[in-house]
Amino acid sequence: MIAPMRMTTTFDEMWGRGTGQSQDAAVPNGSPDGPPEGPPEAPPEGSVNGTPHGADSVLPGIQAARSGRMTQAQVMYQGLRPPYAAFDDWLTGENPARLLRKQHEAEEVFRLTGITFNVYGRAEAAERLIPFDIIPRILSAREWARLARGIEQRVRAINAFLHDIYHRQEIVRAGRLPAEMIARNAAFLPQMIGVEPPGGVYTHIVGIDLVRTGEDEFFVLEDNARTPSGVSYMLENRETMLQMFPELFARNRVRPVSNYPLNLRRSLAACAPRATKGDPVVAVLTPGLYNSAYYEHSFLADKMGVELVEGHDLRVMDGRVAMRTTQGYKPIDVLYRRVDDDFLDPLNFNADSGLGVPGLFDIYRAGGITIANAPGTGIADDKAIYSYMPDIVRFYTGEAPILQNVPTWRCNDPSALSYVLDNLHDLVVKEVHGSGGYGMLVGPTSNKKEIAAFRDKLLANPANYIAQPTLALSTVPIFTRAGLAPRHVDLRPYVLVSPDGVTITPGGLTRVALKKGSLVVNSSQGGGTKDTWVLEE
Amino acid sequence: MLGKTANGLYWMFRYLERSENTARLMAAGQRIALTRSHADDEWASVLETTATLGPYRARHGEVTRDNAIHWMLCDRDNASSVLAVVESARNNARLVRTALTREVWESVNESWMILRNLLSQRVGERELPAVLTVIRNRSAHVRGAFAGTMLRNDIYNFARLGTFIERADNTARLLDVKSYVLLPSAHAVGSSLDNVQWETILRSVSAEGAYRMTYGQDVRARNIAQFLILDRRMPRSLAFSVGKLVDNFGFLADAYGTLPPSGKKAAALQTGFASASVDGLLDSGLHEFVQGFLRDIADLGAQAEVDYRFYD
């Protein structure tokens, strides 16, 4: 386990490592226990507020180019990184006023398209836009190739892990994972024991959240193995960029992302129950119009050319799950559900659910329908399991993990606990099953009194906590009135799994903390998104 | 297609049609109110045509111009206000987003954004004509995107059923509320209608020009009744609307292989129109005829909901 890092410089993906003094300590802080639906999850509020920020001077780029003077910022950074060369060349020739206009135009496009997320409990601003920044995040072919290998390895391991956990539990027998991590875990779904999902796939769609700290330093923050959201933003961001800056795509050879819906449908269809005859009938199950991610549900159904259904459109008939059409009930083969496990089937899970389909799970167990992702996959992205992921990858693939985990101290281990207690001021301490940033300590931004109070809580129930070091998250410039300015980002690539293989869309969703110095990329707290480019060789 | 989707399309287009009809009624109402000493009577008549006079009185009591305008445009207590129906249309569009082209969706969404902004505060009398024009233009915009980009399949047919059931209902209500103008003395051969009154009726369905093309300057109750009830060329007449309903039930029957009871009801209505004469209708009582028609249209809509499994 590596020592906690107290980075004094931040890696900017356009301009390289800062060489000045920066206090940009960041807190990697996924929240796998948070609601999997809704706007992409992000470090919750409170975890990072008040983090000191240094690298906030205006970056080189159009501002410096137009004024003809060197800014202090230019002295601080190493120099333009190669993936951004063609982009910077274009940017230098651009008029900032035009770009500002384009930024506003982009917002109009999003508003018109209706790419919104719903905010619960507010009648007026019930639908909000996620801000979009026009400066793309650019990854080279080499960077992506390595990431993609790491992602595929991790996703294969997750699927093997899920199959094992719901069957023989070899990993527990081998002593690589304590039995209580499964048995006493709320994310473990006993109903799934012994169930064979069609095609052997558990996580058909995965979103791996990554952060970067340097040239080749990527960390997995969390594995979203339930119902990852946000892919519609990835697609619409690209559409918008193509519409606004077609000339950029003539200068840069950017790998397309638009195949995602087609690949998704193919991938889902390939997982249809064996008894399926002809072209499998696929449907997307949504909680409904007022769900925060409703736009995405309808977007994906639309782009795949399949029906968007709610629980009350479905019923169990003759051993199948069927949807009510204008011409009677029609059986479904594959259900891409965007409803949590608990709400899938009131007969088998939460009896109070009005969203689900009574008896759905019985049909699933009998092999009459594919549910994507399979129920019970939450055990793979649980915060407590996360710390075992390097072992899980090794156990099922026989290889060393390509992507790093953020080092995690499990406080139930006495030596780890003693280390954590000695280093509280440098660490982030989280509740194992907590979510939304509650009950956590961010050492670097807490005062002595807060740390002392937390120490008592930690000592009272060590097994309830894990600790992680602070990381210096990379930045990517955003466009502001004053020119380019560095902001922290994360990345969620989208991965499809079927018996035919693993498909990773080049790029993914980049979320960016638009507030100066902030690490909160969550859309409900001032976070925005960017188009993410992976360049061809 | 999902039954829920058919339902959403049907209501989306009923609501869009309603927003446009209300705007038209208000424009005609404002115009006639300006020429009258008892202007508020005219607003009461408009409210009656939108079938909201009762709820209005319960909420506001006396009919005044300003309250009536506010009520029909954006009063939160009126589920049929323009703002409310545009919002409902847009919500239904979100519900059936997968059945719409991007252009239709964006047009509806943009309409909602524009009107929500425009109707966020009380509209004064001076701004009213411009606001009503925007409402009608937005409706035309959606219809244009719809006609120009949608596949002619069952999706299209359910949208059209909604449009024409709403339109038939609206024209029938207008005839009913204004029947006192058309009856009984007006029926007397040769009598000419009060200029302003007939103009209101025709304006309310944007048909002044069309009427003139058909009948010249000769404005008679009989002709107006013929025009709005039986003329199959007039796009807001009852016969035209029923004809479109029959067509769309027919296309659905072609696609689904069966004509359900609602389709048969529409066909029966059409047969009735084919053998009807305007003199006969006026003799046996316009009010009774229109009341009967409103019932038939409501039954037909309810039957379609059952036939095509709109609900569980």
Oligomer kind: heterodimer
* Helix content, binned percent of chain B: over 70%
What ranges of chain B have pLDDT less than 50 throughout 5 or more consecutive residues? Answer: none
Report strand % of chain A: 15-25%
Shape of chain B: globular
Largest interface: A-B, 23 and 23 residues
Low-pLDDT residue spans of chain A: 1-8, 20-57, 64-75, 121-125
Relative helix content of chain A: 25-40%
Radius of gyration of chain A: 23 Å
Strand order in space, largest sheet of chain A: 5-25-24-21-20
Count the DSSP helices of chain A: 16
How many H/I helical runs of chain B? Answer: 16
Secondary-structure content class of chain B: mainly alpha
Strand percentage of chain B, roughly?
under 5%
Overall mean confidence score, pLDDT of chain A = 85
Number of domains of chain A: 2
Count of the domains of chain B: 2
SSE topology string of chain B: HHHHHHHHHHHHHHHH
What do these coordinates show?
The complex is a heterodimer of chains A (537) and B (312). Chain A is an alpha+beta fold and 537 residues long. Chain A folds into two domains: 11-406 and 471-534, no CATH class; 407-470, Dna Ligase, domain 1 (2-Layer Sandwich). In chain A, strands 5-25-24-21-20 form a five-stranded mixed sheet. In chain A, strand 6 (205-214) and strand 7 (217-224) form a beta hairpin. The two termini of chain B are 14 Å apart. Chain B has 312 residues and is an all-alpha fold. Chain B has 16 helices and no strands. In chain B, helix 1 (3-34) runs antiparallel to helix 5 (82-95), helix 1 runs parallel beside helix 8 (154-177) and helix 8 (154-177) packs antiparallel against helix 16. The interface between A and B is medium-sized, with 23 and 23 residues. Chain B: InterPro entries: ATP-dep_Glu-Cys_Ligase-2, DUF403. Chain B: It holds the Pfam family Alpha-E. Chain B: It comes from Rubellimicrobium aerolatum.
